[in-house]
Amino acid sequence: MGVIIGPRVIDAGTSLLSVLISPVPVAAGYPSPAQDYFDGRIDLNEHLIKDITSTYVVRVSGDSMEGAGISDGDELIVNRALEPRDGCVVVAVLDGELTVKRLRLTASGVVLQADNPRYPDIRVPGLSDLVIWGVATRCLHHV
Predict the structure, then answer these.
(1) I need a surface site. Which of 4, 14, 22, 90 has the fewest CB within 10 A?
(2) Would you say residue 116 has pLDDT above 90?
(3) Catalytic residue chosen out of the listed positions 15, 22, 64, 71
(4) Quick check: 136 and 88 in contact, CB under 8 A?
């Protein structure tokens, strides 16, 4: 089950990370001549976070979303201000339990879908207490 552990708040005005950026792309096929210098810095806040006041980082526990490229121990950047839509990866609270799943809005109701065939879909009964806590926008995947 894709359970999240302790969301961390990203404080407004705090730089998540500023790193050096290479002026040339790195080849993933055949190697290209190496460039041994970097061209300035890049602020990852600008590329990863659209609304810092409603963005959190959560760590994933479990493998139910591995088909979406989300592995055990990865961190998700979650925006609580985004409107959840069909097909989004969301952090949901179902009857008091946190989970990371793909949201499916069907004619027969709401389904929380794992992206791993070993896990069944969770069809949300009408009387269940479901809150979509936030929408995942990025996965920080460990390599």
Answers:
(1) 14
(2) yes
(3) 64
(4) yes
